[in-house]
Amino acid sequence: MKRRQFLGVAAIAGTGLAMAPTKVMGGISSFTPMVSGENDKPALLGGPKAFPGQFPSWPFYDGQEEQALLDVLKSGKWGRLDGSVTPQFEEEYARMMGLKHSLAVANGTTALYTMLGVFGVGPGDEVIIPVYTFVATYNVVVLNYALPILVDTDIETFQIDPQKMEQAITPATKVLMPVHMGGLPANLDRIMATAQKNNLPVIEDACQAAGSAWRGKTVGSYGIGGAFSFQSTKNLNSGEGGAIVSNDEAFINDCYAFHNQGKGPSSASFVPGEKGTRGSNGRMTEFQAGILRSQLSRLQAQDKRRKRNIEYLNGLFGEIPGITPAKLYDGVTNVSYHLYMFRYDKSHFAGMSRQRFIQAMGAEGINTWSGYGRLNREAYVAGLQQNKHYLKIYGEKGMKEWFERNQCPQNDILTDEQSLWFGQTMFLGSTRDMDLIAEAVRKIQKNAAQLKN
Ligand SMILES: *Cc1c(COP(=O)(O)O)cnc(C)c1O
């Protein structure tokens, strides 16, 4: 597996989207006005770039973050067991989410792992996840020696197919773990109905979706718990960081104990009972919480700007045959866009490959990614069949059957040749930037026959 695929969305930071930190959140400053003629020539064929400027830099910070870091530094209280910044962030985050409780943790992976730990997921259990996700969703299941069951994608929305999710349930299923991919909500009506019918708990992997909402309620509030990530590419950023949200006090207390070596918040005593028999250290630092409090104060304004730009771009792309943005389900009432996901149909581009399109866009000054691949067929995933512990638990035949079960034909089509992404920071500038993105695609389309070779 390529390192880039393994890192998933984090790869965006490593491939040029994240630039030097800056104090301004502006759009680009200089443009070449588009007129027909020479400017119609794609940059790959020697014409001028459609987008000669730079997209807004990421991350954004100012004196607020500087002060917050210095305050923690000088207090000498650097961990959550010493200070009070983390509980303040938890309260503010829960309030923003419209939920009763939140628990800040070291990162999004820890948020998911902690919840699976509280449910006591282990050998012999199955956890249902989408195939189209960051590898962390898969890893947390495997860390518990349970079987991750990878479900096919609804190609129009890029989300887990709710019908195939239901069909994947067996007597061994312990948890449903849908993901809100790119910040776009998965079909929560269908998923929650399936969960109820089968009496299964839902953990929402909302790591890319801080602030997105379904029927007026934030995602992460439908399941027993929701997981969020504050890793550097995510819309709310503290370099590394994460949170669990829940309306269930007993559940969040169990999560606290799990992430604190089995101990409760107010004393050094172990939390009794079966759920207290395993634990870890998943605690957030006060430095992370300090940065997050500042970043949180900007999140909604940034989300609004992204949304405005994306809705505008959707309008422009609506005029371009062969470019289809990911569809939103009817229940979606807000999107905190982490990715702009869309499909490319090469038959409208003179048969030009997706890879060549990405190259042509790059030459125009616009970074475009193919996104996730076939996770179910990655060597990393296939290798689980040879893992000695898995062989001990499930047997050779059991592991073969597991691998065969994870067929995802729609996801194959989507990821092999159609899917494309733009990163969220491209939408923090002006609508003018959107005009130039659409202009680049039009120019490439017009010259596709020539570009193709
Ligand atoms: C980022 C992400 C995670 C993991 O979060 P980290 O903070 O990087 O550990 C899990 N699931 C999805 C869908 C993600 O995008």
Structure description:
By secondary structure, the chain is an alpha+beta fold. The protein has a domain at 63-292: Type I PLP-dependent aspartate aminotransferase-like (Major domain) (Aspartate Aminotransferase, domain 2, 3-Layer(aba) Sandwich). Helices cover 39% and strands 13% of the residues. The chain contains 16 helices and 15 strands. It has helices at residues 3-7, 11-14, 63-75, 85-97, 108-118, 135-142, 162-167, 188-197, 249-259, 286-317, 354-363, 379-382, 388-405, 409-418, 431-446, 448-451; strands spanning 101-105, 126-130, 147-151, 153-154, 159-160, 173-176, 203-205, 213-214, 217-218, 225-229, 242-246, 323-325, 332-334, 339-344, 419-423. A 4-stranded mixed sheet has the order 1-11-10-7, with helices on both faces. Strands 3-2-6 form a 3-stranded parallel sheet, with helices on one face. α3 packs antiparallel against α10 and α4 runs parallel beside α10 (286-317). Pyridoxal-5'-phosphate (PLP) is lined by residues 9, 107-109, 133-134, 136-137, 179, 205, 207-208, 229, 231, 242.
